[in-house]
Fold:
Amino acid sequence: MVTVTEALRQRISIREFQSRPVPQALLEELLDRARWSPSGGNLQPWKLIAVAGAERAAVMELARTVRAAPDAASEEGSDLVYPPNLWEPYRSRRYKVGEDMYELLGIPRTDRAARLAQVARNFEFFGAPVGIFFVIDRRMGRAQWAHLGMFMLSLALVAVERGLGTCMQEFWATLRDSLHRHFGLPDTDLVYCGMSLGFPDTTAPVNHLRSDRAAPADFASLRGF
Ligand SMILES: Cc1cc2nc3c(=O)[nH]c(=O)nc-3n(C[C@H](O)[C@H](O)[C@H](O)COP(=O)(O)O)c2cc1C
Structure:
């Protein structure tokens, strides 16, 4: 069994998966473990929809249809992905992880078509057999969004424990309204983020991407020690 520290280090974003299915019982086990995440007031403000098989295929088809529509440029929830005009150090961090990924994939900056094709792999869950959509009640505030994030990480970590990989996917937010309609959700619900879940293809170069992290001294101010 991996330690928490090992699970944190081993969890990386997986962007190529084996076709091997994830049994329902295994997903249920992961959810049963992840639900012990904390939340303010124990609100547990997370909901999710997991799709496999025909339901997964239907979501992928929805993405194809919406993206192919003439007004596809109007992204539905992109405002919630990054703040506009990212500033330093965030701008450079985002740039670097992207460039490192495309280098591993052997896609140069000039090959815009290949880069777009890689981005579009988001809408195929990078080949993962399970897609997950995290849903939150839109009346919830920033605090509850943070708590949903804790749940998402818990799920990603218990997935590592069972040899599974994940990629969180805010990219699905660009189809937020379409997904909302597709799943027949009540007006109060909002689709925040997606996640691919499956067994990693360890032979795929893209899965060898090791992103950087700033040192504690760069983000932590320890006072009174
Ligand atoms: C909430 C969230 C949403 C993300 N959305 C996407 C996404 O849509 N597509 C993608 O390829 N990666 C996505 N990522 C992965 C990040 O790019 C990745 O976590 C970051 O670069 C650090 O790399 P690591 O996960 O391998 O440690 C997301 C990560 C998080 C936490």
In short: The radius of gyration is 18 Å.
